[in-house]
Q: What sequence folds into this?
């Protein structure tokens, strides 16, 4: 095969494998048998072995790369990762709603209500559509650079759908360990006489902070994306539009998000999830309310550490920490 034929075939295989990764890991709706998928990957690995100059960082064969690190470097988030004020009951919610409506001179308000995932908040930076950096939240301004570990999470796209990707975009989400993976991991640790993780959040944090990405890759972590930090090339009118755009770009966005225009509807929704959350295959510790219109968010602004346009409604912790 001539080099330019090899290059073309490698790119064709990458797109096909990316398509199937998105179907399987993001949509949970594969359209190919495992054996056929493995054949595609084997053909790409063979091509990249025969023509090493073809290997690109965003090739699906480069998910688990690099030697273990000595330690983590810190990076500055282009836009700070805010924390959320908490609401624990109907009175707290009514206070939040009243402050929002007062701040908006009694304009109509839509709330986007999303699940609050009990995991590790991370920021993914894409430049020209390619994943260049992944970091933990840290103190909101400075986080730890954990790119090789995040690249092992198969539902994180290594490159965005073109066209439409801005030059630079930071997307925010929560890395978590599904309850089933957590139970299996602790079983293996018990058999090996290792200390157990107390809960899936600690297991996810411990798995992300591994210096060896190969270990992270074995931990079956996953991610939900729920926000956009800095971006230089795209403007949204509503948070719900930004979430839809993230889904179109290939990110894994949670299907239980809803939009309500009255507090009563929000409260009914929160009561539904008070018990229904235990049926989910991942842990949530509450739900997040956000004013949907971004111009209204702007007008409400933020306090020193958290937005006035969002609040986390928290359920009491589960009795026996799973
Ligand atoms: N859906 C969301 O916005 C969401 C979900 N889970 C979380 N742990 C957090 C934290 C912030 Br800050 S926002 C958010």
A:
């Amino acid at each position: 095969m001539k080099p330019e034929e090899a290059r073309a075939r490698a790119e064709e295989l990458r797109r096909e494998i990316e398509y199937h990764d998105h179907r399987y890991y993001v949509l949970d709706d594969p359209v190919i048998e495992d054996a056929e998928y493995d054949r595609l990957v084997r053909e790409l690995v063979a091509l990249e072995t025969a023509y090493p100059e073809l290997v690109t960082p965003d090739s699906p064969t480069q998910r688990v790369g690099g030697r273990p690190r000595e330690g983590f470097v810190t990076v500055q988030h282009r836009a700070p990762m805010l924390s959320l004020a908490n609401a624990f009951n109907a009175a707290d919610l009514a206070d939040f709603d009243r402050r929002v409506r007062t701040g908006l001179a009694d304009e109509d308000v839509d709330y986007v209500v999303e699940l609050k995932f009990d995991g590790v908040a991370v920021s993914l930076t894409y430049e020209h559509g390619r994943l260049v950096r992944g970091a933990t939240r840290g103190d909101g301004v400075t986080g730890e650079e954990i790119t090789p570990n995040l690249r092992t999470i198969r539902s994180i796209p290594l490159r965005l759908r073109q066209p439409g990707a801005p030059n630079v975009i930071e997307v925010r989400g929560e890395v978590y360990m599904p309850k089933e993976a957590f139970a299996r991991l602790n079983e293996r640790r018990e058999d090996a006489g290792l200390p157990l993780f107390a809960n899936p959040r600690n297991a996810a944090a411990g798995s992300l902070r591994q210096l060896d990405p190969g270990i992270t890759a074995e931990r079956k972590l996953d991610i939900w994306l729920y926000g956009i930090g800095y971006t230089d090339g795209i403007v949204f009118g509503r948070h719900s539009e930004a979430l839809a755009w993230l889904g179109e770009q290939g990110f894994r966005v949670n299907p239980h998000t809803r939009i309500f225009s009255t507090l009563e509807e929000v409260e009914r929704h929160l009561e539904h999830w008070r018990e229904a959350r235990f049926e989910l295959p991942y842990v949530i510790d509450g739900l997040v309310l956000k004013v949907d219109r971004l111009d209204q968010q702007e007008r409400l602004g933020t306090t020193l550490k958290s937005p006035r346009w969002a609040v986390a409604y928290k359920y009491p912790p589960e009795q026996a920490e799973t």
Summary: The first strand starts at residue 74 and ends at 76. The mean pLDDT is 94.
